[in-house]
Write a structure and sequence with these properties.
The protein is an alpha/beta fold. The protein is about 35% helix and about 20% strand. The chain starts with a helix and ends in a 7-residue tail after the last strand.
Length: about 375
Amino acid sequence: MNQRSIFLSLILFAAIKGLAAAPVPFRLAIVGLDHGHVDGFLADALARSDVQVVGVCEPKPALAAQYAERFHLPPSLLFSNLEAMLTAARPEGVAVFTSTFDHKQVVETCAPHGVPVMMEKPLAVSMEHARAMQRAARLHQIQVIVNYETTWYPSHQLAYTLACEQGAVGELRKIVVRDGHQGPKEIGCPESFLVWLTDPKLNGGGALMDFGCYGADLITWLMQGQRPSRITAVTQQLKPEVYPRVDDDATVILSYPRAQCVIQASWNWPIGRKDMDIYGVSGAIQVVDRTALQLRKTGGEACALEPAPLDANHREPIGYFIAVTRGEIPVHPLSSLETNLIVTEILDAARESARTHQSIELPEKSGK
């Protein structure tokens, strides 16, 4: 064999080796186009080399056509029936952008096919729906993951490390989580989103469900999976002319044996915010936004800290979903089904507390 032949053989071998080493794109399907967060998610998925979008299921023809035109989706990717899409497209995972009420039906349809599901927060409109999804996930051994924007905040991971792993502020005594903005209509959410987001059946409530879930999720994580013993909530309709069917402001107090936590959720604030304060017996942590926080010890000055970037598998939902589905990383507590069953229990009790104007005592152990 001459030198040229050897050289060409080496090039061919390297190319074949490179192809063998390249990961197979993740076969992703989208279910529902009613949730406003689908826009960024779908654009990201279509632009990634590690993802192949194999199907988009949307039963409303006009909405499906609108997205097909905007994102240049071929007709072969569009389905109006979830069962048909699962059979034809054979996705590795499904990302859900339906109403919260429809999460249960999607999970129960995907589970027998062995297809993992990631839905936009919150998990469910009620514990009845949450338990049904838990049963389906257990029976068919699939992952059910809940996507929160706040899971991808480097500041939250550093706050957890300081408070729960390093004990930087001592035993936790109070956590206050604030999530809200001017209101979904005020910030320009599309009508297809508003229709179900402001429906008490399809969303389970208003600001309490839409924004209260963030606080319940973060608090449950920081409290190491503890369930509160008592929940007291007040909801209001400060803009009944805009949101006549659901609450637009909520305050929830969670009582624990040695701590108290507060969730503030609103569609009434003049600014958008997602921040929290963590108080321990010897100091406090203020999470200002996704990349900024402060630590202040008793008797000391506030010290600004800059969190390190999160690792590649925990920076955004698509890469995380791929890594979890393929068994490369464990499920993060913030998105886990176990944590979000507690989140649903908190929101359920908060809704009942607001309705009855009474505190709700949770049983020692949640029902299975």
